[in-house]
Amino acid sequence: xxxxxxxxxxxxxxxxxxxxxxxxxxxxxxxxxxxxxxxxxxxxxxxxxxxxxxxxxxxxxxxxxxxxxxxxxxxxxxxxxxxxxxxxxxxxxxxxxxxxxxxxxxxxxxxxxxxxxxxxxxxxxxxxxxxxxxxxxxxxxxxxxxxxxxxxxxxxxxxxxxxxxxxxxxxxxxxx
Length: 176
Prior knowledge:
By secondary structure, this protein is an alpha/beta fold. It has five helices and seven strands; from the N terminus they run H-E-H-E-H-E-E-H-E-H-E-E. Strand 2, helix 3 (54-60) and strand 3 form a beta-alpha-beta unit. The radius of gyration is 15 Å and the shape is globular.
């Protein structure tokens, strides 16, 4: 799988060198988004309930951490703060305040997942896993919005998907 365009098209020139960043890749799946940072020397913590991809990630990036955790169990992992938090194709609303708390002062949140219009196109179609209109903007309103998009995107298989994207910065320096 390819790294999300939201990450690769972002203007990283105004931020610390990528090899100095601490990155959290939540519900990472294969880890392809976090791997983009790890390839550039960043310290990435990959978190997923399914550890299937972990052996390959550990071999490729021995400097990174891997954490098998069910983010929906209610027992959230004790993690510090990060310069970058990645959430792609995952939605568990009770986790949102915890995500905000993982952002260090100046930290960036990259969030992209399906919105309610996706149900007309196919899976996922369960409203529990689909964002309402402007939900990311409202949920992360304490953060400074750098980019927001809601609408149709074309995936790597040339299939249309309805998604919302948010890049936001913790400019107020919220902490635990």
